[in-house]
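Entry 14. Structure prediction run on the chain below.
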Amino acid sequence: MMSTPKSAPGIKDFALLVGLAALFGASFMFTHIALADIPPITLAAARVGIATLILYPLMLRAHQRLPGLSKIWLPVVASAIFGYALPFALVAWGQIRVPSSLAAIFMAIMPLATILLAHVFTTDEKLNRWKVAGVLCGLLGVTVLFGIHTLRNLGGPDALAQLAILAAAVCYAINALVTRRLVGVPKFSMLTALMLTGTVVMLPLSLIFESPLAVTPSWQALGALAALAIGPTAIATLLILVIIQRQSASFLSQINFMVPLFGVMFGWLLLDEQLSAQALIALAIVLVGVALSKRGNTAS
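Output returned:
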């Protein structure tokens, strides 16, 4: 049976897309605020844990349940680790030393990393000249962002923090491929399973390495944690599904241009972070790379 063609994107669709980009962009700001009192692994565990508490009642209200014991849990566990638990912890750890606006720029390489992984692990998304040009632009942008001095001293703490954020971007790219295996799972069931699994993975690590019970966060840090769990985690994941259902994954991919811009804007306006000309040039180069790769997705 042929699927019904989707209508052209309207104002509501673009409003949802911009809202989602703003939520993702704000996550770097909220993480920066929460890290003042909450250590990174504990922050990641609490973020997915609170999101689980939000999504579980919604799952029950939708008359859905967690998936039964079956092979579907293999991609669920992989997606929970690479799409939520691990990148949340890596970004938080990296942001101890990296400003939120800079972290947002580093994360912009995610779609370019996805292209490379898709070329290796899929049969229908191979590299073409546009995608290669996009990836090369991304590499150039990251090189400019690191700077020659940092590249010469990659053992330094700042470089390791930046590499952690780049590793988080690669985790998201891996997850983009893993989630293909979750097609057909009811949305609230899938999202609740992802958040619950992420909590189960991160909570023991938090207890082992960070003594979360001894943490005494300020109200500001708790507010930032709540905002992270509600906005860029629970609501954002629901918005992704709504946008894809209304339009397509291709339409959703335009968010890759907006998230780093929102991240930079929030860091500048609300955290008084100042970006160097080097960082702004790097952002422009990376976004050009994303644009070229998007052209490659439609090229024959």
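The CA atoms of residues 151 and 159 lie 8 Å apart.
Filed with the rest of this week's runs.
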